[in-house]
Design goal:
single chain, 151 residues, alpha/beta, Rossmann fold, three-stranded parallel beta sheet
Length: 151
C-alpha cells in the first residue's frame, strides 16, 4: 500500500525472473476495504502472507491493514488454508524502502518460524526485530544512468 508498491512490484518481477515463486497484492483503497476484490487476487495456492504497513500501532495486536487482511481471509474461508499470516512495518522515519528490504521480507516469510511484527529499512534498537538487508540488489535495467541533483 502506498509508495512502497513500485519497489515491491519491481522486486517481485526480478525474483520471479530468478526462479522464485512470489507475488504481491496492492491495496489501493484501505477503507472501505473490499474483501471480495482483495481475496480474489490471492491465488488458491498461497500458503503464507506477509502484510506490510507504514503504521506502528503500539496499542493494537497488529497494524490496521494486517487486521483487515486476516478478517478478509477469515470471512471468505481462506484463513484455514493458510500456514502463516505475518506483518511488518516498512519505511519508518522516512527511511528508504529498497529492493533488498523486499527480499528480506520474502526470505523471512520462507523461514520455518518467521519473525512477526518486524521492521525493515531501519535498525530497531527497541524490539530488535529488524530484518537485515543481505543483498543490496538493484532492479534498475543495465545501462540506466541515475542522477541526484541538489539545488
Amino acid at each position: 500500500m502506498g509508495s512502497g508498491c513500485l519497489t515491491v512490484a519491481e522486486t517481485v518481477d526480478y525474483l520471479n525472473a530468478q526462479g522464485r515463486k512470489v507475488g504481491a497484492v496492492f491495496v489501493r483503497l484501505f477503507r472501505p476495504f473490499c474483501i471480495k476484490a482483495f481475496v480474489e487476487r490471492i491465488p488458491k495456492t498461497v500458503k503464507r502472507v506477509c502484510v506490510l504497513d507504514r503504521v506502528k500501532e503500539i496499542t493494537a495486536s497488529a497494524s490496521p491493514l494486517k487486521l483487515d487482511v486476516i478478517q478478509a481471509l477469515l470471512e471468505t474461508g481462506r484463513l484455514q488454508s493458510m500456514e502463516k499470516v505475518i506483518g511488518g512495518i516498512y519505511g519508518l522515519s522516512s527511511k528508504d524502502f529498497i529492493p533488498a528490504d523486499v527480499v528480506a521480507c520474502f526470505d523471512n516469510l520462507e523461514l520455518p518460524e518467521p519473525v512477526e511484527h518486524f521492521t525493515t529499512s531501519i535498525t530497531d534498537d527497541v524490539t530488535h526485530k529488524s530484518l537485515p538487508r543481505k543483498n543490496l540488489l538493484t532492479c534498475v535495467p543495465e545501462g540506466t544512468v541515475q542522477c541526484i541533483f541538489y539545488g
